[in-house]
Amino acid sequence: xxxxxxxxxxxxxxxxxxxxxxxxxxxxxxxxxxxxxxxxxxxxxxxxxxxxxxxxxxxxxxxxxxxxxxxxxxxxxxxxxxxxxxxxxxxxxxxxxxxxxxxxxxxxxxxx
Amino acid sequence: xxxxxxxxxxxxxxxxxxxxxxxxxxxxxxxxxxxxxxxxxxxxxxxxxxxxxxxxxxxxxxxxxxxxxxxxxxxxxxxxxxxxxxxxxxxxxxxxxxxxxxxxxxxxxx
Lengths: 112, 110
What we know:
The structure holds 2 protein chains of 2 kinds.
Chain A: E1 4-7, E2 10-13, E3 19-25, E4 31-38, E5 42-51, E6 54-57, E7 64-70, E8 73-78, E9 87-94, E10 101-103, E11 107-111
Parallel strand pairs in A: 2-11
Antiparallel strand pairs in A: 1-3, 3-8, 4-5, 4-9, 5-6, 7-8, 9-10, 9-11
Chain B: E1 3-7, E2 10-14, E3 19-26, E4 30-38, E5 45-50, E6 56-59, E7 62-66, E8 70-75, E9 84-92, E10 98-100, E11 104-109
Parallel strand pairs in B: 2-11
Antiparallel strand pairs in B: 1-3, 3-8, 4-5, 4-9, 6-7, 7-8, 9-10, 9-11
């Protein structure tokens, strides 16, 4: 089994719909991250969490929210999806900031 | 504001043709520079962390080097299985988040 599992792997949704992307990890790490990847722009940080009671905004948090349900689970929500949120989304974990990060396989989200 | 720029955006090599990928950065105090490999349809995988100018790290056909303004990922005698997108990221200061570059897509033809 993968260390970091994202569901769904692919999703097509309509503008204005609420959608949740889920992430679970078996690494036992406290730190979890959500990134967005667009062609040529690399990975941009949306939100991150250092433990269950800690949530922090990243570089591009507008239009997104997160929930850390447990040490192993970190969900990303788009409250009202818009087409420019079409992208590849990655969840990651690390033992500490600056440590080796372990990424999920990604969720390809298309908003039509 | 941190800036991480990778070049070239894409690189085509013949098998066995050595080359280098560049990652230039502008941060006031580098905590660490990271290289990741990303295969199509997959998440990035960690390759190296470099912490100070002059440091070098190697893994199979890859060698990463670091200066005060840039890092190079040297690929010696590449094989088709080295084809991937290579991402670099920098961390400025302990506890700060990583800033990623746009990546270099490497294609190695047999």
